[in-house]
Amino acid sequence: MKHFPIIYQNDAGDCGVAALATIAQYYGTTYSLNYLRELAKTNQCGTNILGIVEAAHQLNFDTLCIEADKELFNAHDLTYPFIAHILRDDNMPHFVVIYHIKNNKLLIADPDPAFGKHWIDIKLFLKQWTGNTILLTPGTTFIDQKKSQSNLKSFLQELLKSKSKIIFGVLFSMIITIINLSSSYVIQKTLDKYIPNSKVHDLSLVFITLGIAYLFQQFLYVQKELILEKFSQKLTFMILFKYINHLFKLSMSFFYNRQAGDVLTRFTDANHIIEALSNIVISLFLDLTMIILIGLYLIGQSPHLFIFVCLSIPFYCFFILLFIPLFEKKINRLWQKTPN
């Protein structure tokens, strides 16, 4: 399905422009949804067929609007993909992209993340379909171009400004891990050597050393948490402040054409992004450091045990990949229930 792209809607009324963006990407062009909203004159009620057609014309697509029935799918000269207008189970109007038909099943790209790209029986689709259809083909003046929103490059540049905090966080984590591994080794030697031989003087020295090491470890742990908290605060300031600053620069028409929830939920989305990025950065550097150190320790203790642990990794990966679709469905259902 990699040859059948899909663009998901950001807001409740973005399904029309998202469907148009999906077809544009199918033909090799990329447009931001905000740009297409302006072309289609999307408002709080969403995008209508006329708006999609006018936007498509400005993108140099040849369009044809028809009201069809099931015989449309028997036409040999039917050009895929095209946009179909449907009614959800709650009678809410919606736009989807029809990519392909095979064995009386349709490959649909639904801008709603709760459905996404999927196959559906044509009989079930016909119950939802209003018959309104927008056929699109690239016009003679159609030009491949990119007009998309900025990617993560600018964000990564900002992230590099906090590299000192990341470095210190990794360094403290390395020392904490080394102390943990060393203390385990010392306790093992204590149980095997000092206690059986009743070396009380040496045993006292060991406990004093371990006590100092654990105090130093706790000090480093507190410092590491403070550094990571400052790092998270900087991410919060960087993302939310830019968003608020951007909102103040927008024209009033931007707010007239959107539900209040479409704007306010961006703050919640920003918090999710900050949390995800913080976890990714921390996991990438800290966990990788722990894996390397613990891996070297295991090799020194028992190469067979190290191999056994490595062989278990594919099973963990398998179960993670197995549950990803389930979590995505849960998240998409929550997204659907989010009020405007």
From TrEMBL:
GO molecular function, one term: peptidase activity
Family matches, as InterPro entries: ABC1_TM_dom, ABC1_TM_sf, Peptidase_C39
Keyword vocabulary terms for this entry: Membrane, Transmembrane, Transmembrane helix
Gene Ontology BP annotations: proteolysis
Domain Peptidase C39: 9-136
PROSITE patterns xref list: ABC_TM1F, PEPTIDASE_C39
Main location: membrane
Domain ABC transmembrane type-1: 167-340
Name by which UniProt lists this protein: Peptidase, C39 family
